[in-house]
Amino acid sequence: MKRILDIRGDNRGNAMIEMAIALPVLIFFIYGIFEAALLLRASAGMQHGIGEGARVAIVFPTPADTAVSTKVSDALFGMQDATTGYPHVSVVRSTSTTHQWFTIGVVYKKDVNFLFLPTRTVTIEHTKRVYTAT
Q1: Alpha helices in the chain (DSSP H)
Q2: SS3 content of the chain, % helix, strand, coil (to 5)
Q3: Mean pLDDT of 91-106
Q4: Is the pTM of the predicted complex or chain greater than 0.90?
Q5: Where are the domains of the chain?
């Protein structure tokens, strides 16, 4: 009976057990924050690329679609780990007779591997319409 009371009063090893329970949860959250930061960086890179393409598109005389697309592709950053075939840049010129504009779009897909959970594909799309001089 005295031995049982001695074990119940002994607190050695409590910190190790608490750490064994809390550490995997902490690592899981830190890894999630890291993955979310990579997606936010790619989104910022897409916005930057579209902005650079918009600056090229508004000059007079109106540039070719390929010149705008090349500028957007060159200005993108943060997408080194994209799924094959991405980022995809699209530049579409308007067909309206009264106004002229470009619609510039970028699509980015990334497989997010969240430690032991199944892989998910995240898709981020940004578009911008830029009116040009007629």
Answers
A1: 2-8, 14-57, 65-75
A2: 45, 20, 30
A3: 90
A4: no
A5: 2-131
